[in-house]
Design a protein that fits this description.
The protein is mainly beta. The chain has helices at 104-114, 149-158, 221-227, and strands at residues 2-10, 19-20, 23-25, 37-40, 59-62, 66-70, 77-80, 87-92, 95-101, 119-124, 144-148, 172-175, 185-190, 193-202, 229-230, 233-244, 247-249, 253-259. The chain has three helices and 18 strands.
């Protein structure tokens, strides 16, 4: 079976908006700069749209040196990344890792924007996935999230109002696998890279948040729960780990190397 890579998305700031990429070099940690930055409480617990729904409206971009963030009603943040600041112990879903504090100016910008004390940290150290022996920065658990375009098409036939794929914050969107075809694949060649599909993605409250308005509703979780509840979770999309690094480009052929 073959398909086509139709979207590549990286998320420089955890829970902020995505950056659509035309082409990227896949790294062991996923797409370049993906979830390299994160907001944390003063105690080091990660913050996301689950806590601060307005994070959906953040539009970050990062070139490896400067993180720029736009937000409605606020002057843009233009922040030169710090690599020699205080190293903080932080947690992502109660799992410990570390981050370099990005200083008071960035912390003040975000704290005033959300009216809550927080700090901006940049990933440092090493963090491994629960399964698959992969590496990850501040993503919830895995470096890549793959969604079949036909899976979204099928879901949208069941909804009163169709939803865009950004509700699910995928790294890769692939056309040609068929509805929920990602469930049946173990190894995929995408362009010059090979990825292993390691674990179904259990979906959370963030999928019910409109990424353009930050308004929350009941969908798509209500509908997905009726036919995609497995292992005590509502599953949509698949978490993946790179196995062979290479260049990914929108339009690349996708080949199923091994079925599940």
């Amino acid at each position: 079976m073959t398909g086509t890579l139709t979207e590549l998305n990286a998320y420089p700031l955890k829970s902020g908006g995505g950056t659509a990429l035309r082409s990227a070099e896949l790294t062991a940690r996923g797409l370049p700069f993906d979830r390299e930055f994160m907001l944390v409480t003063p105690e080091g617990r990660f913050l996301s749209q689950r806590d601060l729904v307005q994070m959906a409206l953040l539009r970050p971009s990062y070139d490896g040196e400067v993180l720029a963030v736009d937000a409605p009603g606020a002057p843009s943040l233009v922040h030169k990344a710090v690599d020699d600041g205080e190293v903080r112990d932080v947690t992502v879903h109660r799992k410990e890792c570390q981050g370099v504090d990005q200083g008071d100016e960035a912390a003040t910008w975000f704290s005033e924007l959300f009216d809550t004390d927080c700090r901006l940290v940049r990933f440092t150290g090493r963090r491994t996935t629960s399964r698959g022996e992969g590496e990850v920065m501040y993503a919830d658990g895995y470096p890549l999230l793959v969604i079949s375009a036909e899976s979204l098409d099928d879901l949208n036939t069941r909804l009163d109002e169709p939803l865009p794929v950004n509700r699910f914050r995928p790294s890769l969107v692939i056309e040609g696998l068929g509805p929920y075809g990602e469930d049946d694949v173990r190894l995929l060649r995408v362009g010059g890279a090979v990825i292993e599909m390691v674990k179904p993605c259990a979906r959370c409250l963030i999928t019910t948040t409109d990424q353009e308005t930050a308004e929350r509703g009941r969908e798509p979780l209500r509908t997905l729960a009726a036919y995609r509840t497995r292992d005590r979770g509502i599953q949509f999309g698949y978490n993946a780990v790179p196995r062979l690094l290479g260049t990914l480009t929108v339009g690349d052929e996708v080949e199923v190397l091994e079925a599940r």
